[in-house]
Each structure stands twice: as C-alpha cells, then as structure tokens.
Design a protein that fits this description.
This protein has about 200 residues and is an alpha/beta fold. About 45% of the residues lie in helices and about 10% in strands. It has eight helices and six strands. About 15% of the residues are buried. The structure holds zinc ion.
C-alpha cells in the first residue's frame, strides 16, 4: 500500500483533529493546498499562529480580545447597560447576541458547560469569576443564556441555585419555535418549551 509522504500525512492528521472535519475532508483540503499557490498556505499558517499569539481573554468577561487590551471593547464601553449581565457558554455566543443588536448589557463567558460525563465541573468554568463579579458589581439582572441542551439546562439550573444569595432577577431565555417553522416538525422538547414559555396576548 502506498503511503503519503510524511509532510502530507502530517497535515491530513492535523486537520482531521478539527471538529467537523473527517479524514476525507482533511485529505481534500491537504491536496487542495498542495496545488494552490504557496501564499495561500503562508497566510493560513500566519492566521493560525496569530489566533494564539495575538489574542487573549478579557480579564472581566472572558470574551476573546486583542492581546494589547486587557479588557474587551464591550466591557470598556460606557454605552452599555452596566446592570444586566448575560451569561453565555462560548465567545461565539457573544457574537450571536451582538449580531442581533437587541442586547445592550454586559456578558460573562463561561467557556463551556457542566458535564459530569466529560468530567467538567464548576471549577473548570469561569463560575468563580462570575461570583466575584456579582459581588463587586451592582447587577440587577442575570440572564442565563446557556444553550437549550441537556448540559446547558443543567448549568443554568446550577447557576440559578448558586446565585440565590444575590439580590438579582435571574432569567432564562424564552425558547420556542423557530420563526417560519412548522409545529408538526418541531421536536418534542422544543414544543414543550414553547408551551411552557407561552405569553399573554395583549
Ligand atoms: Zn470583556
């Protein structure tokens, strides 16, 4: 059986370790890069190194920020509502909220969710940092915006219990049916949530 030259196999192996990329896609990308101009590989390599070298986590909310700044643009902004805190799983969730333009408060990024199966406990997330923040800042509402998954729900429940000591309004995102969706295609838990989160028509 013919084997790939080592440098080629190395890239295939490295790409295969990324989420959503199987061995087939990894091979296809590798051979694409082999044929493409060298500058493509160079800029890809630079970008890959750059994300580690030129970014860090915001010291306040733990969102991704430029290495030069200790706190991110959102935390640094005086235009944001300083009393509402939205707790999310990942930096990408911050981006999703920001894209909607419908939220003007601050964020706290947990960097994951509680998962006993994967051995992820409270100490593995930015939960202590969340307490410290709530102790030292006057928030009036905390929105627990973890994903509507089993782990996301469990994390929200855990936080809800632990945050009782603070005089806060604690909310969870209302979840329901996707706009334009069809009731008959909604899965059971989505439909149950939609029912539980029903609102008065006024
Ligand atoms: Zn921040």
């Amino acid at each position: 059986m013919q084997t790939l030259p080592e440098p080629v196999q190395n890239l295939v192996d490295a790409l295969s370790r990324l989420p959503g990329i199987g061995p087939k896609t990894a091979s296809r990308l590798t051979f694409y890069l082999l044929r493409a101009p060298e500058e493509l590989s160079q800029s890809l390599a630079d970008a890959l190194i750059g994300i580690k070298k030129n970014t860090s986590l915001c010291e306040v909310c733990f969102n991704i920020t430029h290495k030069q700044s200790k706190i991110c643009e959102i935390c640094a902004s005086s235009q944001r509502d300083q009393h509402t805190l939205c707790v999310v799983e990942e930096p990408l969730d911050v981006l999703a909220f920001e894209k909607t333009g419908g939220f003007n408060g601050l964020y706290h990024v947990l960097h994951g969710v509680l998962s006993p199966i994967e051995g992820i406990g409270p100490e593995d997330l930015k939960i202590k940092e969340l307490y410290d923040r709530l102790k030292t800042h006057q928030f009036t509402e905390v929105i627990l915006a973890t994903n509507p998954s089993m782990e996301g729900d469990a994390t929200a429940m855990y936080l809800h219990e632990r945050l009782q000591e603070f005089n806060l309004r604690i909310t969870r995102l209302a979840l329901g049916l996707p706009v334009g969706g069809d009731l008959e295609y909604a899965d059971q838990s989505t439909l149950l949530r939609a029912l539980a989160g029903r609102q008065n028509l006024d």
